[in-house]
Design brief:
Layout (H helix, E strand, L loop, with lengths): L2 E6 L5 H9 L2 H6 L10 E6 L2 E7 L10 H15 L2 E7 L6 H13 L3 E6 L21 E3 L8 H10 L14 E6 L6 H9 L5 E4 L8 E7 L2 E5 L3 H4 L9 H13 L3 E7 L6 H12 L3 E7 L10 H12 L8 E3 L11 H12 L5 H14 L4 E2 L2 E2 L2 E8 L4 E6 L7 H14 L8 E6 L2
Parallel strand pairs: 1-3, 1-4, 4-5, 5-6, 7-10, 7-11, 11-12, 12-13, 17-18
Antiparallel strand pairs: 2-3, 8-9, 9-10, 14-15, 16-17
The protein binds guanosine-5'-diphosphate.
Length: 434
């Protein structure tokens, strides 16, 4: 999906505009664990296009002087976005920080759309003229607080999107991303697994310019490692900010089928790991937990078991994810990684025949009667699988509200006990039909 970044000085109204663009969807996103709660990154839609929006204001480095912050924002936007929306304040006119940002954006040659905010009515359009002098094209009058002018601005943004192009990988290719904070050993794992086998390093049209994927084949299966470029780049200021790496991770998760959540055995699990894993879960990706640097900790015969228990306790929502203990350094158990990826990917794509599914659910109901509420009993009439990646099941029932969480859990457990769903989330959806 194309990426739109919103850049501008503090208090010009970036977040208001961000919220307008992402609209009601924020409510849904906000329910997700952690990361997106601060509305740094979300989905937008306009006409027939889907895109991601970044509010670079969320990435402000707190104790930096304004000009430095602005440079960081602009650089992040240049790095990440297909189109940059530069917001200025129509009532305040051009400031030196605006000029500075305009200069950086202009040099980058990225498409920039200039939004002049706080222009709340047409009488104020005279305010626009001075903004031509920024040298980045037509100023679009907008009012974030009144929701005015955004349509025209978005029309202009869409004109600069790359042609609709999904990653053009063969659908049988398994796309893997390695997620985890810096220094857990992601690059080392990739290097240790692939060695000299790296076949192609490709630039993918329609994605952020510098997303570099690595494709390779192992045992007749094609794989792509998503955006390993992000792992290689080091040393820039924003790399060190936590939010930046989250952003990178979210984008990689979005483009992958299987997510490897990499944890450093020496440091254990931190909040950040949970947030990102939560996002992968919500996004319906197949997930494997990889505990790396296993060579570096003192072990006895109980260590692995204890570690596993800790992970299970911390990642309750990932009870389906296999856990691998690896060392990129000694190559310990690295040979299990790709076969596990392949297995969970197959599970992610599993289709259960409808008759088998219905027999199973009828047996389950006989074993554990459906819940009742106010004298009414849930009746499951028919079940059908409607999707894969992840497998999703629609339950046609008399009253959808009667399918309580605990019973849904029970049904999910029955499905998992019967079919091979290791590594994949599954979705259960209740629909009313008598
Ligand atoms: P990334 O930021 O997640 O890509 O992490 P790197 O792959 O760059 O690794 C960070 C540091 O950890 C480097 O110094 C690696 O040599 C070291 N490292 C990576 N994997 C292992 C491992 O399995 N065992 C040990 N002892 N060190 C590791």
């Amino acid at each position: 999906k194309p990426v739109v970044a919103i850049v501008g000085r503090p208090n010009v109204g970036k977040s208001t505009i961000f919220n307008r663009i992402v609209g009601e969807r924020v409510a849904i996103v906000e329910d997700m664990p952690g990361v997106t709660r601060d509305r740094l990154y979300s989905h937008g839609e306009w006409l027939d296009r889907d895109f991601n929006v970044i509010d670079t204001g969320g990435i402000e480095l707190a104790d930096e002087p304004l000009l430095n912050q602005m440079r960081e924002q602009a650089e992040l936007a240049i790095e990440e976005a297909d189109v940059i929306v530069f917001i200025v304040n129509g009532r305040e006119g051009i400031t030196s920080a605006d000029q500075e940002v305009a200069k950086i954006l202009f040099r980058s040659k990225k498409p920039v759309v200039l939004g002049v905010n706080k222009v709340d009515n047409p009488d104020m359009h005279d305010l626009l003229y001075e903004f031509y002098s920024l040298g980045i094209g037509n100023p679009y009058p907008i009012s974030g607080s009144h929701g005015l002018g955004l349509g025209d601005l978005l029309d202009e943004v869409l004109k600069h999107f790359p042609e609709k192009a999904d990653d053009d990988y063969d659908p049988d290719t398994i796309r893997i991303s390695l997620i985890g904070r810096p220094n857990v050993g992601k690059s080392s794992l990739v290097n240790a697994m692939l060695g000299e086998d790296r076949v192609i390093v490709s630039n993918i049209p329609g994605t952020t310019r510098d997303a570099i994927d690595t494709s390779f084949t192992r045992d007749d299966q094609d794989y792509v490692l998503i955006d390993t470029a992000g792992m290689r780049k080091r040393g820039k200021v924003y790399e060190s900010t936590e939010k930046y790496s989250v952003l990178r991770s979210l984008k990689a998760i979005e483009r992958s089928n299987v997510v490897l959540v990499v944890i450093n055995a020496e440091e254990g699990i931190i909040e950040q790991d949970k947030k990102i894993a939560g996002y992968a879960h919500e996004a319906g990706r197949a997930i494997i937990i990889v505990v790396n640097k296993w060579d570096a900790i003192e072990r006895d015969d109980k260590t692995m078991q204890r570690f596993e228990q800790k992970i299970r306790d911390e990642f309750l929502f990932l009870s389906y994810a296999p856990i691998l203990f690896t060392s990129a350094k000694t190559k310990q158990r690295l040979q299990h990684v790709l076969p596990t990826v392949k297995r969970v990917s197959q599970n992610h794509n599993l289709r259960v025949p409808t008759n088998v599914l219905n027999d199973l659910i009828m047996d389950a109901v006989a074993m554990n009667p459906t819940p009742t509420d106010k004298g009414k009993r849930l009746r499951i009439n028919y079940v059908t699988q409607v999707a894969v990646e992840p497998p999703a099941f629609v339950f046609f029932v008399n009253e959808p509200e009667l399918l309580h969480f605990s019973y849904e859990r029970f049904l999910e457990n029955r499905l998992r006990a019967t079919f091979e769903f290791e590594g994949t989330p599954i979705k259960i959806i209740a629909r009313k039909k008598n």
